[in-house]
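The following record pairs a protein chain with its ligand, pyridoxal-5'-phosphate.
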Amino acid sequence: MSDIFAFKGAHDAGYAQPKPLISEDEISSLIPNSMVRKNPPKWPTASEPELVRHYTWLSSRNFGIDSGFYPLGSCTMKHNPRINERIVQLPGMNDIHPLAPESHLQGLLAIFYEMQEMLAHCSGMDQVTLQPVAGAQGEFAAIRCIQEYHRNNGDECRNKVIVPDSAHGTNPASAAMCGYEIIEIPSRDDGRLDLDALRAVTGDDTAAMMVTNPSTLGLFEPEIAEAAEIVHEAGGQMYYDGANFNAILGKTSPGLMGFDAVHYNLHKTFSQPHGGGGPGSGPIGVKNHLAQYLPKPLVDRRKDAKGIDGYSYFWINPENSIGKVQQWHGNAGAVVRSWAFYRRYGRELEKMSEHAVLNANYLRYRILNPDSASLQGIPAMPVDGAPADVVKHEFTLSMSPIKDTTGVSGKDVAKRLLDYGYMAPTLYFPMIVPECLMIEPTETESKEVLDKFADDFLAILSEDPEIVKSAPHSTDVGRVDEVWAARNLVLRHPLED
Ligand SMILES: Cc1ncc(COP(=O)(O)O)c(C=O)c1O
């Protein structure tokens, strides 16, 4: 163990805290008494090798996409090509000051412009801003644009946003933050949008409908154009949650489906490390009628013989912008990484979606095909109930039948997968699938990895239920009480006090 706080003070400290430059009296005259800490911090002292060991030890305590298979549905944890990191570390990218004048930022602005254009093109939108730094923030910003649009049209009475019951929680949350009432509609038995249910709630008060397509069940919505027509006829707007854009990129687009606004999770579709709330990037794209409300600033360009490829680049502010949603220029590093990712694929970007969809279907078939299921005596049941059906980039499994027969829950299987060296799939989401496990293999995993995972998954289901119910058995920390952990957050190291 190389926990730095456990050293209890090595003698050869690699670094000593400097003495304060001002006296204690001066400190208390500058800082309110209530904010001055009573005891000095107990900084650990460590020599350089001890420090290196500490961080190496810390890094090994995390499971990451670089440690093993990470089939986290909806969160899309995909391989992050190292070339992206090299590009974002170039001095011209990495050493930029956010207050630098446009003339010093021409390279970066050219990348931003190209990203705006590429994202607009791929999604069938007219204008894109790269400002928001998460999908959820993109949702909020785009719904605010829709709200301003209705206000400008004198349509203040539109106070409802419709979401299907398979929606990600951020959809209703973002709309609620804008002050909207949320109308949830049930999905059909096959998991798809229910147009009758939609018709029943659409009217003069509809501001927008938010849809993820393919849905959080990994299923494409074949009637999405009709849904858009219903909402548009009532005067509402269609919002596309782009978290699953990696399933359809280059094949179809939200614009073709009838959407007016979309957010992209650059940190999912275009690689990027992400998690724990960041770092991410959630640009939004809109059709022309919403463009004047986009968060500012965007990048535009003019012809300039001395500029990059004959253009110089500059910031612009949309006429009736909802304002800034993020300090500086959004998450510039995340945008550059995604730009590098897309440049590597170029016009073959659709191959990424094809492989993601192929991998998900292969893995799903391996787990659900009648032979492996009956061999193990497992009635594993997807929400649509038919192993031969086609999903997009991810799929859901209901562990309900297994729980009924053996008492093993979805959570137990997820915990047992940790013992086999995998990250657990997304658990209990979407909420309409009982005992749900949601699996997204992503495009870069090989057939061997998928086969091994399927074998291990099926092996777990035929293990002694007691072993599965008490998993994990091989991790540093066993099963924790998550509710208690969330309610009683301890963020300080026990030896730090
Ligand atoms: C379907 C869906 N929508 C929206 C979001 C929110 O995106 P972000 O985590 O970037 O805020 C997620 C995140 O997992 C998602 O899966």
